[in-house]
Amino acid sequence: MKHTLYFIGLLILSINSFADDIIPLSAKQITALGISTVPLPNKQQGEISGLPALVVIPSNQLYVISAPLAAMIEETLVGVGDTVKKGQVIARLQSPALAEVQRGLLQASVQNQLARANLLRDESLYKEGIISESRYRNTQGLALETQAALAERHQMLRASGMSDSAIAQLQSGNSLNSLLILTSPADGVVLEKSASHGQRLDAAAPLFKIANPASLALEIQAPQAVTRDMKIGAAITLPTQAASGKLTAIGRSLTGTNQTILLRGVILQGAENLRPGQYVEAAISTVVNSGAQWEIPNSAISRIEGRSVIFAKTPQGFRALSIRILNEGAQNSLVSGPLKGDEIIAVHGVSSLKSSLTGVGGGE
């Protein structure tokens, strides 16, 4: 400890006699100060790595199946994790509201038939000059109103899940039915099930969430500084999961919590190795002119008077080199700067080098 303080004292006393960014040290002094070095890692050309990302289902592949009318669940036929096909029955509900809508359809159908008959009759009478034009126009308007009301009832039944053939059968047979049948809108897997047998539901209450897990996307958080070197369509890789894709969107605003930009991407290969809701680390390729980059330990970086520096070993000691931090991670950071790639950099004892350069004692 005494030897360490002695060498630091000598350095501080003599610092003003050296160039600003050069710290002359002998091998004995380097050992005494506990400074250790490693070769600069291999450069990464055109890639930002270590970005935190969340695996999600694309919005156009996610379906929420809700109760179209107030109802009671009679039977559910699938559970979480089950694979379903498009058109497959997934639940049956009992809904008095459905019978009410059906009754309204039958009433609208009868009224439309009467209005059409009246229109045909008055059209004939008008042509023969027996009735006035105003009466004929009034009958014509009533026919249009009943036709619109019938179309509205048709649409309400379609929205409740009844097919056109079932609606036609209802009109021909005049038989009301309170059974609601829910089917899957697409091939996929049941992600969520929020109701069970016997439960009463309000209209629009969600029952199932279905998605195709073969189609996955990414929501990536990236520092603003690195996004300027990114372009839509850039390659995305997930090295740990052996998956890859492409960048589809770059956000325009910063998030309020961690001041990052939200990036969106789609997985094109290796989706079977991922799960929705999984946190991963992504690497995104950048434009060619973004320059060489290196991923170095955070312990090698010092901040001096508003600039970030690393200390490269020289025959005489160390030299401080200014760098630009592209992406700061928990253990390592991605940087760029005037580096050749063959430098030996200090990773321990950096606080002593910083103190020597600034002329003050203490650590970082």
What can you see in these coordinates?
With 364 residues, the chain is α+β, with helices and mostly antiparallel strands. Among the domains are: 2-46 and 291-358, conserved putative lor/sdh protein from methanococcus maripaludis s2 fold, CATH 2.40.420; 49-58 and 215-286, Elongation Factor Tu (Ef-tu), domain 3, CATH 2.40.30. It is built from seven helices and 23 strands. Strands 1, 3, 18, 19, 20, 21 and 22 form a seven-stranded antiparallel sheet that branches. Strands 4-13-16-15-14-17 form a six-stranded antiparallel β-barrel. A four-stranded antiparallel sheet has the order 5-12-10-7, with no helix packed on it. A hairpin with a 5-residue loop joins β15 (243-254) and β16 (260-269). α3 runs antiparallel to α4 (133-159).
How many E strands? 23
The 3D shape can be described as: elongated
The CATH topology of the domain at 2-46 and 291-358: conserved putative lor/sdh protein from methanococcus maripaludis s2 fold
* CATH domain class of the domain at 2-46 and 291-358: Mainly Beta
CA radius of gyration is: 36 Å
- Mean pLDDT across residues: 85
List segments where confidence is low: pLDDT < 50 over at least 5 consecutive residues: 1-19
Strand content: 35-45%
Q: Could you give the distance between the termini? A: 18 Å
Count of helices? 7
**Largest β-sheet summary:** 7 strands, antiparallel
The class by helix and strand makeup works out as: alpha+beta
